[in-house]
Design brief:
The complex is a heterodimer of chains A (about 525) and B (about 160). By secondary structure, chain A is α/β, with parallel strands linked by helices. Chain A has helices at about 15-20, 20-35, 75-80, 100-105, 125-130, 135-140, 145-155, 165-175, 195-200, 205-220, 230-245, 280-285, 315-325, 330, 365-370, 405-410, 430-445, 450-465, 470-490, 495, 500-510; strands at about 5-10, 40-45, 55-60, 65-70, 95, 180-185, 220-225, 265-270, 310-315, 335, 340, 340-350, 355-360, 380-385, 395, 420-425. Chain A has four domains: about 5-105, 3-Layer(aba) Sandwich (Glutaredoxin); about 125-330, 3-Layer(aba) Sandwich (Rossmann fold); about 335-425, Ubiquitin-like (UB roll); about 430-515, de novo design (two linked rop proteins). Chain A is built from 21 helices and 16 strands. A five-stranded mixed sheet of chain A has the order 2-1-3-4-5, covered by helices on one side. In chain A, α6 packs across α13, α10 crosses α13 (about 315-325) and α17 (about 430-445) packs antiparallel against α21. The mean pLDDT of chain A is about 95. Chain B folds into two domains: about 10-65, Arc Repressor Mutant, subunit A (Orthogonal Bundle); about 75-165, Glutaredoxin (3-Layer(aba) Sandwich), CATH 3.40.30. Chain B starts with 8 loop residues before the first helix and ends with a helix. The mean pLDDT of chain B is about 95. The chains are: A alpha/beta (about 525), B alpha+beta (about 160). At the A-B interface, α1, β12, β16 and α17 of A face α2, α4, α5 and β5 of B.
Amino acid sequence: MSIRVGVRVFVPCDTTALSLGADDVAARLEREAQARGLSITLVRNGSRGAAWLEPLVEVETANGRMAYGPVSADDIPELLDAGMLEGREEHALALGATEAISYFARQQRLTFARIGVTDPLSIVDYLAHDGFRGLEAALARAPREIVEEVKASGLRGRGGAAFPTGIKWQTVLDTEATQKYIVCNADEGDSGTFADRLVMECDPYMLIEGMTIAGLAVGATQGYIYLRSEYPLALEILQTAIARAEAAGYLGDDIRHSGKCFHLEVRLGAGAYICGEETSLLESLEGKRGLVRAKPPLPAIEGLFGLPTVVNNVLSLAAVPYILAEGGQAYADYGMGRSRGTLALQLAGNVQRGGLVELAFGATLHELMEEFGGGTLTGRPLRAVQVGGPLGAYLPQSQWQLPLDYEAFSAAGAVLGHGGVVMFDDSVDMAEQARFSMEFCKVESCGKCTPCRIGSTRGVEVIDRIRADEDRDANLALLEDLCETMVDGSLCAMGGMTPFPVQSALTHFSADFRRPADGGRS
Amino acid sequence: MSKPREGNPQSVQAEIDALKHKPGALLPILHAIQDRLGFIPEAAIAQIADALGQTKAEVHGVISFYHHFRTTPPGRHVVQICRAEACQAVGARSLEAHAKASLGIDYHHTTADREITLEAVYCLGNCACGPSVRVDDRVLGRVTPERFDALTDALRTQILEVAG
C-alpha cells in the first residue's frame, strides 16, 4: 500500500514553543490544510532554541527548510494563502532558509547540532544525524581509552564548578567496587537556564548515549537521571526515549550485542534547589532529605549508596557523544585558554531575542547580548546582567566586555556557572534584587550549616532595615560582614555564593541602597 | 495533576508495594501517592515507614523538606507563578501581586471554591519568555495580568460545564 506523503511541516513541541501556543498552531495547520485539500506531513520537532521566534514553523522544500515565525494559530490561513507550503517568502512572518537566519548561522553548534532539526523521539532521525556514532566508537574501545579521549577534549563540568570531566571519570574507573553508578544531574534550577531542558526535550537520545558511554568508561552498569519536578514534559519524553532505546538495543543487558550492560532510570526531584548540589542530590536519590555532605569523601570514591559515582551535569554528558565520535582533539580545537569546546549560553530575562546560543568559549558577554540578544525587550537601557544563576554576580556595564571563559569570569569575581545570562533594564531596583538573593537562600537552604541557614534570614532583615533607612551605614557594614561570614563559613555553594549577587549589587549599584525610605520605588 | 481523591489504605499500600524494592524508594513512593491522591495523607506516613523500615519522623522529615510534597488536599488546579530572576526582569513581581489580589489568596492557599491553589515556583525553564506560569502540568509564557485572569476564569468555567 502506498500512502501519498505530503510536504513536511515542522512545528516544535518543547516547553517554550508549547507555552506560546504551538499545539494550537499545529492543530490549526492540520485543519486548514485538510479543508483546502492540501497534503501535509506534520512533524513535531524539538526547538532550535530561538525562543523569540517560537512557535517557529518550518517547511521542507527542495532548497532546504524554510522558516516562519513567530506563528500564531490565527496566522495560518494567511500563511497558506501566501504559499508557505511551497516555501515562498511573501508573508511578513517569512524568515527565509532556516539555517541562514543569522541567529543560527553565527553559532558554533556541536552539542546542539541536532536540536530542533529532528523529531526528538525518532531513533531513525537520530541515526540519520550522526546519533550513536559516539557509542559505537566507545564500544570498540577499552574503558581507559574512552577516559583518555574525554581528557583530551578538555571538557569541564558544565554544571558550574567546571571540574575536568575526564579526571572525575578516571577516579571512578580507578576505584575498585562491586557496583558503580552514573548520575546525571538534571536538576537545572538556575533561573535563566534552560539548556538542559532543551537537551532532554529535544534530543533525549544524546543524553542517553552520553550516559551509556560514561558507564562503559568507568564500569558502571546503572545510571540515574535526577530530574527536577518542574520539568514534566522532559520527564515524559525521557521515559519514552529510554524505553525506545532499550527496545532498539542501545540500552539494557546486551548493548548492540557487545555483551556490555547499562540500565537507566529517571528519578524525579521534588522542588528543592539545593538538590542541584551534587552531594544533596545523592542524598535525595537515596530517599533522604537533600542535606549536603561534607567533602571528602568525593562522590567519585563514595557516592550513591556509598559506592563510586560519576555525577555529571546534562550538558557535560551531552558533549560526550561528539567527543567520542569526532575525537577529543576536535572538541578541544574550540575555545580559549583552559576553557575548551563550546558553551551553551542562555539569553533570558529582559531580552529582545532570547534563547539558546552555543558558541566556543571566548566571545564577549557584550557581543552575545547585543549581536544575538539585540538588547532589551523593553528597549530601555540595559543596566545589570546576572550571569550564572541566582548565585552569580550582577555585572554592571564596565564588565560586559568580559570574555566568556571560566578563568576570566573568576578573576572578575563572577561565575559563568551554567551559562545563564539574565538581562535587566534600568527600571530594576538592585537593592530589591539583593534582598531576593537572600530570600531565595532562606527558602532553599538545606539547613545543615549555620551561615547559610541563619545568615540568609538575617540578610533579608538587614537589607530591609537598609531600605527603610534605619541606621543605614551601620547596617550596610553589618551586611558586608554577614556576606563575608557566609562566603567563608558555609558548607557548600548555596550559602557560600549567595553573597555574590548581594556584594556585586552593593559594589556596582550602591545608589539603590541609598534611596530615601519609600522613595524611588514604583 | 491528579484530582484530589479520598485515599484509602489499600490504594496507598498498592503504590508502596509497587516501588518499595527500588533502591532509595522513598521519593518515588511519595510521588506515586501524591500523583494518585493529590497529597500525602497523614495515615500514609505510618504505612510508608513500616514498609521501608524507617521511623515516622524520618518519613515526615523528608516530606516537609521538599516544596513539592503536600499533606493537605490542593484545589482542583494548582497554579504556580515563577518568582525567579529571569521572570522578575519582565514583570513577574507585579504579576504575583496581581494574581494574589485577583484570586484573593496568598501563596500556599486555595480559593474558597476549592478550584485553585496558588504556589510559587523558582524557575520553569522558560526564561526567555517570561513571566511564566504553570497550570497543573502545562507551562505558559509571557503571561500578563489580563492573560492570567482569562486563564483562571477558564479553569473555573471548566467545572461548571462538567457539572452542567
